[in-house]
Each structure stands twice: as structure tokens, then as C-alpha cells.
UniProtKB/TrEMBL annotation:
Residues 80-94 have a biased composition (Basic residues). Its EC number is 1.3.1.-. It holds the Pfam family zf-CCCH_DUS3L. It catalyses: a 5,6-dihydrouridine in mRNA + NAD(+) = a uridine in mRNA + NADH + H(+); 5,6-dihydrouridine(47) in tRNA + NAD(+) = uridine(47) in tRNA + NADH + H(+); a 5,6-dihydrouridine in mRNA + NADP(+) = a uridine in mRNA + NADPH + H(+); 5,6-dihydrouridine(47) in tRNA + NADP(+) = uridine(47) in tRNA + NADPH + H(+). Residues 98-124 form the C3H1-type domain. It comes from the Eukaryota. InterPro entries: Aldolase_TIM (IPR013785), DUS-like_FMN-bd (IPR035587), tRNA_hU_synthase_CS (IPR018517), Znf_CCCH (IPR000571). The lineage of its organism: Eukaryota, Viridiplantae, Streptophyta, Embryophyta, Tracheophyta. Residues 224-237 have a biased composition (Polar residues). Residues 42-95, 206-237 are annotated as: Disordered. It comes from Hevea brasiliensis (Para rubber tree). This is tRNA-dihydrouridine(47) synthase [NAD(P)(+)]. Its cofactor is FMN.
Length: 685
């Protein structure tokens, strides 16, 4: 397809963060592996070490080679296009924008819109301009029917003669479920959806009643901007590349989320106003607040501390309800953590192949789901191989969360619904969701009560140890979390304030686990990177149901195989490339085999490669297993591909992507979202 690894190696870009060198001891001797480990430097065998490369500052943003040559400055992040600009571009009829119906059937008359279609119907012009096919086979060739992308498929040459699609197989991704029904979406758009179960539950909990709406509805449908109380930065795989603000029109509600009216929907016009604000960058001033203010906005108030005493009271109906809950057994199961952006469906398929038992969708915001946003609903998709699958939602108030779980229960096929109460992202916390709930136990109780009382499906929650560093909270809440109706809780052993700055506090996780009631399954989470790490937690605290693995799976998805087979796998670069090939295949199936699908697959592959480069092959280490917090020195692999895979330069990740998906388009740029190499960055959990 593209250049070989050996060709590529010559052009390898050099890492920008100066990797730690392995300097000599003051007496001139080399540091021992133990001394390196003590300093959290990976003890790479001396024969593989290479001199630290000179900096070219290309890690955080890389541009394609062609572009780099054309432009004097090698690292220029292109300005993001506004939504309106993108829409306008989409509308322009270019020969390359062939109508999907026509592409599928290769028959101009197949499009019901005829001349009014916003896409081109000129098959010959499309053929003349279409870029050359990519190497490899169409991902749909072994499927049930013809390729749904037809002429637009970048592997068109491998289609069987005469195998043309038609509208009946329009979306033939039949191995994926949880696609939002169009009628339901329209009801959500029009705010006409009914939530009988959620509303009944909210009523029975005294969280809903007649009263005054805080929302001042104006004649033209505008709402008081003060009532806008939710927004979020979407960085998820199916809605990536946009800072999307959603709003939730709160109804009359007291500080703990008691609703006084059931009028909740946002109005479209207001939404678009807010979105424009976001796109124009105003959101930076208006919606997100500096961290200092944020912490003031989420204080552990005296009132709430007093309220803590009342938390243990549980009503009888809840206990009956808990007995009726469907059970899910996490014991000993390998759980791939929810991972925004990178934990997309193709990645989860890769992990399933490599041994993951439980998978979970990327975090979806309740307000966006309730508004019927297609990009948010895409986060709930499930592949047929995901046999124990949950979705993760994030919301601030009992009504929003209860209605969302009712909707998901009705429209999707999932085994459990997880509520993210650990998300540290400012824009989420600022709106009272995610880890902000850790400072508001009364609201936490109501959210869990309302959600678990609305559906029979197990409700699980994911938390951090607490909000502030040094003020762990979960041990005082763990009993209640079970009584409130959660079937399981995952504890990420860090506080919100701490982010990833220190290792996870497993002693605290064990302490909480031992305090949990029997009915509540507890899963530990943090820094697991080998089968021995997994074994240790299981044997140190047999009361743990299981553990969840996040970055360990991103950096080496074969960790699931290692745990199942109880070995350190000295995987070779060729085998790693095969895993990437699988991902690309799954990506093309999921995002499409046309040019758009290929480039979306590339984008998410690159996001993932920003993690995989942190893997240090077993055979190169003096001490095994690698620990997640070790900083690697600069080193050579055992072959060119292994060396390339160790590079933390985005330009080198682009080269790997070109080995799998062909040349990047002109003007291509890439900057990783999560900047995984910064070892202390915040992520969603
Ligand atoms: C890229 C990335 C995305 C994440 N997205 C989510 C998410 O959507 N929901 C969530 O609960 N946690 C999310 N997390 C947090 C992880 O699930 C996990 O709690 C955390 O990384 C600690 O586990 P680890 O030490 O095994 O990585 C994310 C973490 C990373 C690195």
C-alpha cells in the first residue's frame, strides 16, 4: 500500500519531549535497572538505547509531508472550520460528492430526489476525479450483501462484478445495533417524547410536582438564558472535532434537583444560538469557568455534610425494588473501561478479539441524548461481538438521568447502564455532572434512586475516590450507593483534583470494597498494566468483584490475552501491525469504506497510536513487567517497524496510518485529543 517500514524509518521524525536519558551514577558507573525503576525510568536494555534525538517539535500537531514541504513552518495547526462553513461546503455539488444512492446502485434514477438532490449524479465525472483505489479488500466483501458504498468505496476494484447495492440494504451494518429510530428522534426533536416510567418514579420519590417553571418561555419560543445549565465538550468518536454545547432547560428545581414542573425541553432556536456562540469561541468566556472558580462552584457545603446523616435512610419500596433488579455478575470478568474518543466500537471489537469480557460505550451526555442528537446516540452502538455490554451516561439531575435511562431501556439493547460520577472535565463538572456529584451526596442519591427505580436494567456508577485531593469520600458513601439502587460501583483510585498525577490509591479502593454491602459489586480501577498487576489486586482484596482496565488496554490491548493466559507476551511488531490491521478493517466497516470513512478511520487510528507508542516490548526490558508510569528512554526496536512503533511523533503515527490506509490527503493535519504522553493529564473518569 504505502512505503515499507524500512523505507519509512529513514524519514522517522524525532520525539519532542526529551526522553529521560539514563545518565551515569556520580562514580561513573551505569545506573542499575533497579535504580532506574526507582526513578520511574523504564529499564531498557543497554544495547537498545539510542541517543536522545534532536527535537523537531512535531508531536502535538503533525502535518502531511506534502504540506510540510509546501509550508515553511512545519507545524501549523489548521484552523477548525465553523459548522456553517462545513455545511456550505457539503452543499456544494462537486463531482466527488456523489449521491450515496447513485453510488450504491450505479443507477441515476435510483435517487428519489432527482434534480433536487444536493449531491452530484454525474457518475462519469465522479469516476474521473475519484482517487485511486486503496490496497486491500473491501471490508464488506465477505458480508451478507454488496458493499453499501458501491462506486464510492475506496476498494471498488475488489467488488464482485454486478454486485451492486440498492436502497433495501442501505445501512447494512447489521452486526451493529442500537441505531436511533427516526420517529423517536423526531419526537425528541419536537420535545414530544413521553417518559411515563421515569416520571412516575420521580413523582414517587417526591422529585416531581406541580410548581413554577424557572424557565421563562417567551412568545417566540426563546428561553431565559439563565436557565441554560448544561454544556459539554464532545470529544467522542462519533461526534469528534467539535466543541458542542448542549443545553438543558431546567425546570423549577431546588438545589438538590427536585423538579417542580415537567416542562423540560430546550427549544431548537435557543440551542442554535448557543451553538453559534460555542463555534465562535464565545463559549470560552461564557460557559466554561477557570478551575479556581469551578472548585468554588462545587464546594463541599456544610449543608451537604449535615445531609449526609440522612442518607442512610432508605424507603421500603426501594428495598423491594432492589430485590427485583436483574443481576449482572462482574466477578472475575475483564472489563474494558469506557474511553471517550478512543474507546470507539472498532477499538472495542479489537479488545473483544483479544479477550475482554465486558465492554462499555463512550460517555454520552444525557441532555444530548434527550435532544435526539445523532452523534451522541452513535455512542450507544453495540457490535454483535460485545456480549456483555453497557453504555455510560453523564447527567447532573435525577430527571434528566431517569428519562435517559428509560429512553435507552426502550430503544437500545444493553446489559447495564453506567452513570459517570467521576468525570473531571471542567465543562461537565461546572454543570453539576460527573465528579461534581461527589460533592453533592443528596443529589447523587436522587440520581441513583431515580435511575435505578425507573428501569429493571442494572444501574452501575463510576466514581473517583473524591473530588479534592486528601478528602476521599467514597468510603463514607459506599454503603449508601448500594442501598440507593446501584448494582455495581467502579472506583477509580484517584481524586478529581489529582487527575493522573500519582499512582492510583489501591489501599483506599480495598478499604471501600470491604465496607461495601454484599449486594453491591465493587470494581477497582487504576494503572493495571499486566497480568501480575491484575492478580495482585485480586489476591490482596478478594472482595473485589473485578477490575477495570483503561490506558493499559489502549497501550497494549493484548493485556486481556495476557491476563487470561497468565503470561507476559513478548509480542512482535508484525503481530502488533496485524492488530492495527484488524482495527482498520473494523473501522472501515463502522465508519465506511468511502473516502470519508477512510479518513475517519485514520483519524481514530491516529488517536489510538498516540497511546500504543508507549508500549515497550518485553524483550527490550531488563525488568518486567513494564509499569504504566515509567518514562521510556529513547530506544531502538528489534526491527524497523518496532522502532517506528516506539516513536511518539505524530508524523510517525501518520506514516503508520499510511501503511494501512494509503497516503493522507493534501493538507492533512493531526493533533491528538488526549495528548496521552503527558503523564498527568485529565481524562473522563
Ligand atoms: C482517553 C481516555 C478517555 C476516557 N474516557 C472516559 C469516559 O468516557 N468515561 C469514564 O468513566 N472514564 C473515562 N476515562 C477514565 C478511565 O475509564 C479510567 O477510569 C482511568 O483512565 C483510570 O484507569 P487506568 O489507570 O487503567 O487508565 C478515560 C480515560 C482515558 C485515558
Amino acid at each position: 500500500m504505502a512505503e515499507s517500514a524500512a523505507d519509512l524509518i529513514e524519514h522517522m521524525n524525532l520525539v519532542i519531549d526529551q526522553p529521560p536519558s539514563q545518565p551515569l551514577n556520580p562514580n561513573g558507573t551505569h545506573r542499575t535497572p533497579e535504580e532506574l525503576v526507582a526513578k520511574a525510568i523504564a529499564p531498557v536494555k543497554r544495547e537498545f538505547l539510542r541517543p536522545p534525538p534532536s527535537r523537531t517539535n512535531q508531536r502535538d500537531t503533525a502535518v502531511s509531508d506534502a504540506d510540510a514541504k509546501a509550508s515553511k513552518s512545519s507545524v501549523v495547526a489548521k484552523e477548525k472550520k465553523s459548522k456553517r462553513q462545513l455545511k456550505r461546503e457539503r452543499r456544494q455539488k462537486s463531482a466527488l460528492h456523489l449521491c450515496p444512492e447513485v453510488a450504491k446502485s450505479e443507477d441515476v434514477s435510483s435517487c428519489a430526489y432527482g434534480d433536487k438532490c444536493r449531491f452530484s449524479h454525474d457518475i462519469e465525472a465522479f469516476k474521473a476525479e475519484k482517487p485511486a483505489d486503496l490496497e486491500g479488500k473491501c471490508p464488506f466483501t465477505n458480508g451478507d450483501g454488496p458493499c453499501p458504498y458501491g462506486l464510492a468505496c475506496r476498494f471498488y476494484g475488489t467488488h464482485e462484478d454486478g454486485a451492486k447495492g440498492n436502497s433495501s440494504n442501505a445501512l447494512k451494518k447489521n452486526s451493529e445495533i442500537n441505531v436511533l429510530n427516526k420517529d423517536v428522534q423526531k419526537l425528541l426533536w419536537k420535545n414530544k417524547m413521553k417518559f411515563p416510567k421515569a416520571d412516575a418514579k420521580l413523582k414517587s420519590l417526591g422529585l416531581m410536582g406541580p410548581g413554577n417553571s424557572r424557565v421563562k418561555k417567551q412568545d417566540d419560543g426563546e428561553v431565559d438564558q439563565n436557565s441554560v445549565n448544561d454544556s459539554h465538550a464532545t470529544v467522542a468518536s462519533d461526534s469528534a472535532d467539535k466543541l458542542e454545547c448542549s443545553l438543558e432547560v431546567r425546570t423549577g428545581e431546588n438545589a438538590d434537583g427536585i423538579i417542580t414542573t415537567n416542562e423540560i425541553r430546550p427549544l431548537k432556536r435557543v440551542k442554535s444560538i448557543i451553538e453559534e456562540k460555542c463555534c465562535s469561541g464565545e463559549e470560552a468566556n461564557g460557559l466554561s469557568v477557570p478551575e479556581k472558580d469551578l472548585e468554588n462552584s462545587c464546594p463541599e457545603t456544610e449543608l451537604e455534610v449535615m445531609i449526609d446523616d440522612a442518607l442512610t435512610e432508605t424507603d421500603g419500596s426501594l428495598k423491594i425494588h432492589l430485590r427485583e433488579k436483574k443481576l449482572i455478575d462482574f466477578r472475575g470478568k475483564l472489563y474494558l473501561a469506557p474511553l471517550t474518543t478512543v474507546g470507539n466500537l472498532p477499538f472495542r471489537r479489537v479488545c473483544k478479539v483479544l479477550g475482554a469480557d465486558v465492554t462499555c460505550g463512550e460517555m454520552a451526555m444525557c441532555t444530548n441524548l434527550l435532544q435526539g442528537q445523532a452523534s451522541e446516540w452513535a455512542l450507544l452502538r453495540r457490535h454483535s461481538s460485545e456480549d456483555l455490554f453497557g453504555v455510560q451516561i453523564c447527567g447532573a439531575y435525577p430527571d434528566t438521568v431517569a428519562r435517559t435511562v428509560e429512553l435507552i431501556d426502550q430503544e437500545c439493547n444493553v446489559d447495564f447502564i453506567d452513570i459517570n460520577m467521576g468525570c473531571p472535565i471542567d465543562i461537565v463538572v461546572d454543570k453539576g455532572a460527573g465528579s461534581c456529584l461527589l460533592t453533592k451526596p443528596m443529589r447523587m442519591k436522587r440520581v441513583i434512586n431515580a435511575a435505578s427505580g425507573t428501569v429493571e436494567k442494572p444501574i452501575t456508577v463510576k466514581v473517583r475516590t473524591g473530588y479534592f485531593e486528601g478528602k476521599n469520600r467514597i468510603d463514607s458513601l459506599i454503603e449508601d450507593i448500594g442501598n440507593w439502587g446501584a448494582s455495581a460501583v467502579t472506583i477509580h483510585g484517584r481524586s478529581r483534583q489529582q487527575r493522573y498525577s500519582k499512582l492510583a490509591d489501591w489501599d483506599y479502593i480495598y478499604h471501600c470494597t470491604r465496607k461495601a454491602p454484599e449486594s453491591l459489586q465493587v470494581l477497582g480501577n487504576g494503572d493495571i498494566f499486566s497480568y501480575t498487576g491484575w492478580n495482585k489486586h485480586k489476591s490482596d482484596c478478594p472482595e473485589l468483584s473485578s477490575c477495570m482496565i483503561a490506558r493499559g488496554a489502549l497501550i497494549k490491548p493484548w493485556i486481556f490475552t495476557e491476563i487470561k493466559e497468565q503470561r507476559h507476551w513478548d509480542i512482535r511488531s508484525g503481530e502488533r501491525l496485524d492488530i492495527l490491521k484488524d482495527y482498520v478493517h473494523f473501522g472501515l466497516e463502522h465508519w465506511g469504506s468511502d473516502t470519508k470513512g477512510v479518513e475517519t478511520t485514520r483519524h481514530f487510528l491516529l488517536e489510538w497510536l498516540s497511546y500504543t507508542c508507549r508500549y515497550i516490548p518485553v524483550g527490550l526490558l531488563d525488568v518486567i513487567p513494564q509499569q504504566i508510569n515509567w518514562r521510556p528512554p529513547s530506544y531502538y526496536g528489534r526491527d524497523d517497524l518496532e522502532t517506528l512503533m516506539a516513536s511518539d511523533s505524530a508524523a510517525d503515527w501518520i506514516r503508520i496510518s499510511e501503511m494501512l490506509l494509503g497516503k493522507v490527503p493534501d493538507g492533512f493535519t493531526f493533533a491528538p485529543k488526549h495528548k496521552s504522553n503527558a503523564y498527568d493529564r485529565a481524562e473522563n473518569g
